[in-house]
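Pair request: fold both.
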Amino acid sequence: MKISRRVGLILGAVVIVAALVIMYVVVYSPQAGQRNDLNARLSRAQTLLPGLTKQKNDLGNQLASAQSSLEASRVHFPESVESIEYGEYLFEIATDCNVKLDKLSFPQPFSKTVGGVTYSVVSLSLPVSGSLANIFTFIDTIRTDERFASTEVNRISMTISGGSASASISVTIYAHKG
């Protein structure tokens, strides 16, 4: 059986076309699908990029602002509560305000965390006596003196008899822990 040249050429062309179709289905078609998927993902990423870049810049600005605020706040908080220094300051203020600071004892500081920042905290009771006006001056000085910027006046108990008064002033001193 002899195949004519024409049939041989047609059969050869069919085989070549079949091979090309099989190659397209096996190799090119999955790559085309992957390329389309990658192009879609690239398009989404390019759409998101400006928003994410802006968000990154905004978060960087917020971080810088928070760090600046933290550094500014640290100025108002001493690194540690030194009982000798605070004792000297309190006796100096008492003398300047014409009140008598009856006794002063510093308890052991304890730690307190507020908003992710840890403070060393000392709570004191300041028993003072003198005229009512001088006691108020003493309290106001503690509240406004820059050495006590990290001090909170919690409670005041007063006793008034005749022309003199006595008070027990409860304060809390905060110090920033490094």
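--- second member of the pair ---
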Amino acid sequence: MSVMMVLEFVEGTTCLEVESALRGMDAFIQNDGGDFSGNFKLSNAFFVYKICRKIEDIAAEDAQGKTWRVGSRLVVHCPISDLERSSVDLEHFMMCLVGADDDMKFICSFQYETTYAVGESGRVDVIKRMVGN
């Protein structure tokens, strides 16, 4: 069993930006020509990256007042048996994203229901942690 975390990226975020942050963490990536999938090295959490067919509204229910539009999503399936390491991987990944691009914007939510973190303006605001909150 796993927990599904979803990162919704602002329109204009490129596949290369997301993939580069993952590769910087030594994640395994299988690229299928735009969309890709893979696993984090530490936790083995499985992820799938998809570019939206059309620009969409943020799907996270409590989007913290954000109104920008979504161009892609990364869905991460975190094994319940290893949530602590999945949390470490996910937080490290989000820091890599904003560290590489001050204009990066994303929302990380639990199954689109609860916002856990917001990345923008070169920083990540963690609202809730997967473990220990």
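Observation on the second member. The beta strands are 2-10, 28-31, 36-39, 46-56, 70-79, 106-110, 114-120, 123-126.
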